[in-house]
């Protein structure tokens, strides 16, 4: 999903910005490396916001995925040192925030992993749904009843179950 790619890109831009400060000196804001990495960071976060908005529309019912994305956003918001650097430039003291920065980086990685895990679960659920609907529309209930999909049939909500029953009753020409 795009949210996984976007969160990975945000994390990568964050890591590259962190790498610039490794000598312990804040580079000037006019340094080509700084300009490139700040531009990349900005573009990556825009990509993240777009992916997040799309995901909120398409899978608005998945609260666990929403929580994972919120966790990533909250961690990203902790990254306020960059604003300080933009204000102070070469006078910024990175050593004062390096410990907090490492903790934030670890939290971002964990939050990204939560998004990946939730997207994997959601992908498997969606694949099961597509197979259920395909079998229902092809009137292959004998296959559905014998398959492992039948075990998850009981997990359907009442609304979902009624919809599937209606589709099955209408026959294979529905569509």
Summarize the structure.
The chain has 175 residues and is mainly alpha-helical.
What attributes does this structure have?
elongated; mainly alpha; 175 residues
Topology of helices and strands:
Blueprint: H1 2-20, H2 32-58, H3 63-77, H4 81-88, H5 98-137, H6 141-146, H7 149-153, H8 158-170
Overall description:
The chain has 175 residues and is mainly α. It has one domain. The chain contains eight helices and no strands. The protein starts with a helix and ends in a 5-residue tail after the last helix.
Could you give the count of β-strands?
A: 0
Largest sheet: none
Number of domains: 1
How many H/I helical runs?
8
The share of residues in extended strands comes to under 5%
Could you estimate the helical fraction of the residues in percent? over 70%
Silhouette: elongated
Pick out the low-confidence regions.
Answer: none
Mean pLDDT: 78
Q: Which class do the helix and strand fractions yield?
A: mainly alpha
Distance between the termini: 27 Å
Question: Could you tell me the radius of gyration in angstroms?
Answer: 23 Å
Question: How would you spell out the order of helices and strands?
Answer: HHHHHHHH
